[in-house]
Write a structure and sequence with these properties.
The protein is of the alpha/beta class. The protein has 12 helices and 9 strands. It is 38% helix and 9% strand. The protein has a 6-stranded mixed sheet with strand order 3-2-4-7-8-9, covered by helices on one side. It has a 3-stranded antiparallel sheet with strand order 1-5-6, with no helix packed on it.
């Protein structure tokens, strides 16, 4: 027969167990509702999704939904801002990730192929930084390297660490300078304008003469041999390009882009100086550009005119270098004036005869 002490102890243990279960269910429910790791349909409370770990979250997002897409986009954080919905005729999944590198794109492509994904179109946002003499990162999750499945959300969403992510999503600030909307479209979460006097990050990290990554680009293409392989270089501040010219790295830069373009079926260079990259209101740091700028690029990737940009496969390396110098010469007064007066208006930026004037949107503000 149970003593009163034993009965009290059992009631206490039952209460504690019941409380623990309720707490776990509450944590699981909140995490599943906010969905900070993107297993489900994202945040159901607010129309904003934070990117705590794009390498993990984007794999969670596409897992079991590979058949919904016939196109995949790889690239770094600048490429996350490419509006995939503007690539007409395809259903694209934007797999671009912060500080993404070609080694990681190969890992993700192999993982996708192992899951039966067979795209008609592969788009790669190429960073010239790949061709600098430095070790490329490879920070993909273990299950990507092993060709496995993502960790079950029931395990992840019982974590107090993930609960902290949910709380921050609801009441805090984004861990990075971008957020994703309800449809997982990436938008810039910074509203300040770029100051051309401030050098862009890693601008003097070295010339672009390392060709070891070229093998990885060939490997990436070989994973989906039946897909159309399209590349592009994202826009970069015209002042950064002028800096490369001043330190005699511009030819190294353009040669690297021209060399890698040979791997692709079509290659668009959007980093050549243009009216868009001469307007500080289009970017906050000289490398991440507003949706309007990226929408124009997206519309040129598969087909259509590219008058603002360069269709790299139609020109030689020397012609590409000369085109950059021509643009820099045409915009030299605007570039010099902004360095002296960074607040000077850029509405008087001259368009070259080959350019069509177009309006570029300001950064969309994330909804509260």
């Amino acid at each position: 027969m149970l003593t009163s002490f034993t009965r009290s102890a059992l009631r206490y243990l039952a209460t504690m167990a019941f409380t623990a279960v309720l707490c776990c269910l509450a944590v699981l429910a909140l995490n599943a509702t906010v969905d900070p790791l993107w297993y489900y349909s994202g945040n159901r409370i607010k129309p904003i999704n934070f990117a705590f770990n794009e390498r993990l979250s984007k794999a969670n997002l596409i897992a079991e939904h590979e058949s919904d897409y016939d196109c995949v986009i790889f690239g770094d954080s600048r490429v996350t801002l490419l509006p995939e919905g503007d690539i007409k005729g395809y259903r694209c999944f934007n797999f671009a990730i912060s500080a993404g590198a070609i080694n990681e794109f190969v890992d993700y492509a192999k993982w996708l192929k192992g899951r039966g994904f067979q795209p008609r179109l592969v788009i790669v946002g190429v960073s010239a930084g790949d061709f600098r003499a430095r070790k490329a990162p490879r920070n993909v999750p273990d299950f990507i390297k092993e060709g496995g499945n993502p960790t079950s959300p029931y395990i992840k969403y019982l974590s107090l660490d993930v609960l902290g992510m949910s709380w921050r999503t609801l009441f805090g600030k984004s861990p990075i300078d971008r957020v994703y909307d309800r449809e997982f479209q990436s938008v810039v979460a910074v509203t300040s304008a770029y100051d051309p006097r401030k050098p862009i990050r890693d601008i003097h990290a070295g010339p672009f003469d390392n060709r070891e990554p070229m093998e990885k680009y060939h490997e990436l293409r070989g994973i989906f041999p039946d897909a159309e392989f399209v590349g592009y270089t994202p826009p970069i501040s015209a002042w950064a390009i002028a800096d490369y010219e001043s330190i005699h790295w511009l030819e190294s830069y353009t040669r690297a882009i021209h060399d890698v373009s040979k791997v692709f079926d079509r290659f668009i260079d959007a980093s050549i100086p243009s009216a868009a990259t001469l307007d500080p209101a289009n970017t906050y740091d000289g490398t991440h550009y507003a949706r309007g700028v990226n929408a124009g690029i997206a519309g040129s990737l598969v087909a259509g005119p590219v008058s603002t940009y360069l269709d790299v496969k139609r020109i030689s390396s020397s012609e590409m270098f000369a085109a950059y110098r021509l643009r820099l010469n045409a915009y030299s007064k605007v570039i010099a004036r902004a360095l002296d007066e960074p607040s000077a208006p850029t509405s008087e930026v001259p368009y070259l005869p080959s350019q069509r004037p177009q309006k570029f949107d300001q950064f969309p503000r994330p909804s509260d």
